[in-house]
Amino acid sequence: MLIQDSINPLYQQLADIIRNSIINGELRCGDKIPTEVELSEKYDVSRITVRAAISELVELGYLVKKQGKGTFVTKPKVQRKIEYLSSFTAACEANGLKVTNEVIKREIVEPEIEDKKDLELEDDDKLIYIQRLRFADGEPLMLENNYFSCKRFNFLLTEDLNGSLYELLKKKYDINPSDSHDSGYDRTTIEIAKAVDEEAELLKVQNGEPLFYIKTVIYDDKNRPVHIGKQYVIGDRYKFVIS
Questions:
Q1: Is 127:115 a contact under the CB 8 Å cutoff?
Q2: Alpha helices of the chain — where are they, by DSSP H?
Q3: Residues in domain HTH gntR-type (predicted)?
Q4: Is there a contact between 53 and 19 (Cβ–Cβ < 8 Å)?
Q5: Can you say whether the dihedral through the CA atoms of 199, 202, 205, 207 is positive or negative?
Q6: Averaged pLDDT of the chain
Q7: Domains of the chain, first to last
Q8: Kindly report the CA angle at 58 between 230 and 98, in degrees rounded to 5?
Q9: Angle between helices 47-60 and 36-43 (to 10 degrees)
């Protein structure tokens, strides 16, 4: 039960009880929690207190409200610093999630005018297009689309790309993608997009589901362009942190 004269406010105590039930597995992803009225009666607190506790857990990503259906336990959001080079693998592992990757496409394509400019391509150069589906605990979370100069990165056509791409570039080819705050050369934007067709099918979400769309041009520590990235991330499973 809740302690009325505790230093911690009642809503915080209730939020902690529900959160611990989720962490301990008593409440699982997809479970519906009791209504505000039921929680109010069970813990002998006002509905305002219950509402504050639920709001906090929704904000933290433990619960999600569904209009007309109730409040449900949701999958934990992956928290990641708002830097493109912040490792997806490290971010997932920090949140207790195991990362796996699946290469969907690996092919040579013709560059657009903007691609030639961004990657400083020679006139006769083409692009290597690599699409990977990235999983957290076996569930798809990110659809990754990367474009490289074919002349400079032709080795990617035969490399094993199931691990960290940046680690491969660093350790085997001495190519070091630079952090955005250090180099000043990469350009990254984050927008909200809607899942359609291919994205929806691969990420196993409904058409129209909100996604983060991250577009970037990454440079190495010698100020040479490495790749163009166009990534789609499931919106309700991800949270960016400004540091």
A1: yes
A2: 10-23, 36-43, 47-60, 88-94, 113-119, 165-173, 180-183, 197-203
A3: 8-76
A4: no
A5: positive
A6: 86
A7: 10-73 (1.10.10.10), 78-241 (3.40.1410.10)
A8: 50
A9: 120
CA atoms of 206 and 27, how far apart (whole Å): 25
Structure-token pair, residue 195: 């899942």
Note the residue count of the chain. Answer: 243
Residue 128 CB burial class (10 angstroms; 0-12, 13-18, ≥19) = buried
Cβ contacts of 144 within 8 Å, gap of 6 or more = 130, 131, 132, 133, 134, 229, 231
Instruction: Report residue 100 as tokens.
Output: 């796996």
The DSSP symbol for 51 reads: H
pTM for this predicted structure: 0.66
Per-residue pLDDT tens for 113-144? 989 999 999 999 999 999 999 998 888 999 99
Average pLDDT over residues 43-50: 93
Unique residue bearing structure tokens 């207790």: 96
